[in-house]
Amino acid sequence: MASFVDRVTLHLRSGHGGNGCVSVRREKFKPLAGPDGGNGGNGGDIVLVADPQVTTLLNYHRAPHRSSGNGGPGMGDHRSGYQGEELVLPVPVGTVVTSADGEQLADLVDAGMRVVVAEGGRGGLGNAALATTKRKAPGFALLGTTGFEGDVLLELKTVADVALVGYPSAGKSSLIAALSAAKPKIADYPFTTLHPNLGVVEAGEVRYTIADVPGLIEGASEGKGLGLEFLRHVERCSALLHVLDCATLEPGRDPISDLDVILGELAAYPVPEGQTPLLERPQLVALNKVDVPDGKELADFVRPELEQRGYRVFEVSAVSHEGLRQLSYALAELVEADRKDKAAAPPPQRIVIRPRAVDAVDFTVTLHGGTEPEYHVTGAKPERWVQQTDFANDEAVGFLADRLAKLGVEEELFAQGAVPGSTVVIGDMVFDWEPTLTSAAELITSPRGTDARLDDNQRATRAERRERYHERMDAKAAARAELDAEREAGLWSDDEGFGTGEEDEG
Asked: Is 194 labelled a binding residue?
């Protein structure tokens, strides 16, 4: 069973916002005391936090689906809905967060760093918040918007000062166990180390961390072995320690050829932009397993050639601890020098937050041609407004039309050549466009966005009611006169029935 995972895809669903409430306050002697519908609560966010106590992404590998709480709906008496519960996910320090399309969202290199990867939905406003001097009794409320739903990629890159690199079974795990208090799994077969091991080393007054990276083989940068999956853990290291096996039993291998293969793989691995290439970082060479007689002899043989290449070479043994003290102090010097260089480096560029431009465009209108052209309106505001609209409420639809017109969507549609009845797409909503009525003559025919409940009742005057009464009386008198004329003509009688004028037989 896997015990270490450094790459996982999270399937996230943040909380949805609660709907606003439509309510009217009722008091004694005031059955309609004004709107008092509360706002809906916001959905909960999903937050990643860099936690030094977490060392693997195994928990998210086993349970990748995570969701936060939904916001509650608003209620009457100005009661807002409850806020959705925030979900906090601890991740190891050094985790890189990437979106599904490859965009880097955050690099959690320091303990305690937080990033919101899935923002919760926004709660809808109640009718009390929508009331204005011109709309004193709104009969609608805004719906809550949906939260984020999608995938993010978590990739762990170990944060250590020194990385131990070398072939499998070169003795890296034994070396880190001898230098520090780490207790990695050690065995005499390749790929014993299946995940990076971290250890803390104290050399004098300098304390630094070392990482035991799984063994590299030829072609690791192209996906062979386990190297490609773990070369990312070398990116953040300040120095490299090449651990060369001087007692290998494999034919065709020697410390020089092993070093050449490892250098080729490190050179082929691309580091992120702005970082120093791996081969340009400080490097030391440790000739391991000199406690073996043949190993000591081979180390003495290859050491001059390595020193001729410019490497500082140490003959060490993880079993007898020979040369470990000198190696730890040499690594401490490299780490201390790198820390001084970083401290003397100019501070990172400040992030300048500029106010939003006054003439910034909040939307775009795109014409999609075809037999039936469609006008697609994209933008955060229009798409959010469509989500907040209850299309079963005519007043809410009118409010949406007013908001879109105020934003300038209708003017842009006119500029793009749209005509009444054209198909307009905003988010998931497709509808036939009807321009907002603006001229005085058109406003007579009940413009969109008005509330029919607020229309004035036109009561008839007394003269109009008298005239309608006389018209009804005259109509009744004319009907009676017509019936009397038919009876005198013998078309019907009161005793014999209607229409025949004949007596009943029998």
From this structure: yes
Mean pLDDT in the chain?
Answer: 80
Instruction: Write the CATH number for 169.
Output: 3.40.50.300
CB atoms within 10 A of CB 136: 11
Residue 105 · residue 95 · CB < 8 Å: no
Q: Give the three-class secondary structure for 120.
A: coil
**69 and 3 part of one domain:** yes
For the stretch 433-448, pLDDT in tens is 888 755 434 433 444 4
Query: Domain for residue 110, yes or no?
Result: yes
Tell me if 197 is assigned to some domain. Answer: yes
Q: 173: annotated binding-site residue? A: yes
381 residue type, one letter = K
- Spell out a b/e string for 208-229, using b for 16 or more CB atoms within 10 Å of the CB, else e: bbbbbbbbbbbebbeeebbbbe
Tens of pLDDT, residue by residue over 190-210, are: 554 445 677 778 888 888 888
Distance from C-alpha of 58 to C-alpha of 487, rounded to nearest angstrom:
103
Q: pTM of the prediction? A: 0.68
* Separation between Cα atoms, residue 458 and residue 205, nearest integer Å: 93
Quote the domain boundaries for residue 473: 462-494
Q: Is 166 assigned to a binding site?
A: yes
Residues 416 and 478 in one domain: no
71 in a labelled binding site: no
